Fold this protein.
Amino acid sequence: MAKIKPSKGAPYARILGVGGYRPTRVVPNEVILEKIDSSDEWIRSRSGIETRHWAGPEETVAAMSIEASGKAIADAGIDAEQIGAVVVSTVSHFSQTPAVATEIADRLGTDKAAAFDISAGCAGFGYGLTLAKGMVVEGSAEYVLVIGVERLSDLTDLEDRATAFLFGDGAGAVIVGPSQEPAIGPTVWGSEGDKSETIKQTVPWDRFRIGDLGALPLDSEGNVKFPAITQEGQAVFRWAVYEMAKVAQQALDAAGISPEELDVFIPHQANVRIIDSMVKTLKLPEHVTVARDIRTTGNTSAASIPLAMERLLATGEAKSGDTALVIGFGAGLVYAATVVTLP
Ligand SMILES: CC(C)(COP(=O)(O)OP(=O)(O)OC[C@H]1O[C@@H](n2cnc3c(N)ncnc32)[C@H](O)[C@@H]1OP(=O)(O)O)[C@@H](O)C(=O)NCCC(=O)NCCS
């Protein structure tokens, strides 16, 4: 049997830089209340959300990604040509093919970097990070750009009082590259497809195209509603609170990090009550900085963790070298948690 040369990678991988982009339009709860029977007080107290950003026509998935990536590349102190792979996690890019990652890789000026999209809902950033770490350590790319980006306002039914207030738009990006020390811990991840009905698109594209009027949701004027994200809020809430705290603990254990050693906790920004409950269950000490970016960003799915990470570093609430636990969870249902050293 012929001998195949093994690929050579770095001993370890780390996040070297982070960048975020938030659309210019800030949408307060008052705007949401134009279409649903609710109140600012209810939305704030049940979800923690005060404002969110909605993308304008120019703030496409690619455009927001390029803005966030430019910042991450500068933060990492590398050139775009050094990027060997671009991984984009999104559920709201409307062209089925080609992947938006290839356009982003080209427009950023990479040297023909490998580029592909992944669909892992609100765990998408953790999935991308895990792939990137593998590529750097295995040697197929020296630097990997991981982007989480969403235009969830395109997939929100503003007449659905269970979801209208939840979602926002934005992009977060990190550069993952070589390290002499472990700086991205083992990932605890998985899927629970038996719960796939709890968060889903109201209507699959093929049925929407056929216009199966009998079964499709209609708007107040009798028109077929554009597909949107729908969820069983309480079921997802309970799953997140009970199951995800366990997964977060497993990620800490896998990395050999005690709650006392942790500096920062960056959970997916789905609901401030889920975040508070996880902090309590994990018994995180007072000194741990907890991301509550949801208040002004809403739930941006795959973008939520890198956006929150970027903001904590920008405001000085977290600093480079801090040890952070990140956990994403959502549609699938899927989840991914890991401990990282902040860039
Ligand atoms: C969506 C969410 C904020 C709703 O909060 P909740 O406390 O579960 O609310 P419920 O659906 O149980 O509804 C409670 C009550 O408020 C009412 N209500 C629902 N939406 C409302 C709204 N927008 N405004 C005012 N009242 C509302 C309900 O009718 C219900 O009234 P009732 O008690 O008289 O029947 C919450 O379920 C949630 O965050 N779920 C998880 C989301 C998540 O993690 N997603 C992750 C994947 S991306």
